[in-house]
Amino acid sequence: MATRTVTIASSHGLHARPAKLFAEAAKNSGLDVTVAKGDGKPVNAASILGVISLGANTGDEVTLSVSGDGEDAVLDELTAMLESDQDA
After folding, report:
1. What is the DSSP string of 21-76?
2. What is the helix (H) or strand (E) element at residue 2, kind and residue range?
3. Among candidates 11, 20, 24, 26, which has minimal Cα distance to 57?
4. What mean pLDDT is predicted for residues 35-49?
């Protein structure tokens, strides 16, 4: 399992649009991906409702965990999404 802590860069946090894009990318990876905010319980990153329920705002740190073949590449892709402003 590959894990990384990432800082949310979207100017309005993980609201509907960036959460949808992130959840779709996690789902399309075909791997098990979870995301957690702080010490909170990890949620399924492929679930837009799960991602929105984190309440992650700009500057918050989340922990991504990916398991399966190619996990490092998926982790890199998802990290890049969270570290860019999806609202721009």
Report:
1. HHHHHHHHHTSEEEEEETTSPPEETT-HHHHHHT---TT-EEEEEEESTTHHHHHH
2. strand 2-7
3. 11
4. 96
| Coil, strand or helix at 9 | coil
Query: Which tens digits make up the pLDDT trace of 6-39?
Result: 999 999 999 999 999 999 999 999 999 999 999 9
For the stretch 54-84, pLDDT in tens is 999 999 999 999 999 999 999 999 999 999 9
Cβ atoms of 12 and 87 within 8 Å: the answer is yes
Assigned token pair, 58: 């700009």
- Tell me, yes or no, if 15 is annotated catalytic: yes
What is d(CA 32, CA 30) in angstroms, rounded to the nearest whole number?
A: 7
Catalytic residue among 4, 12, 15, 27: 15
Neighbours of 71 (CB within 10 A): 18
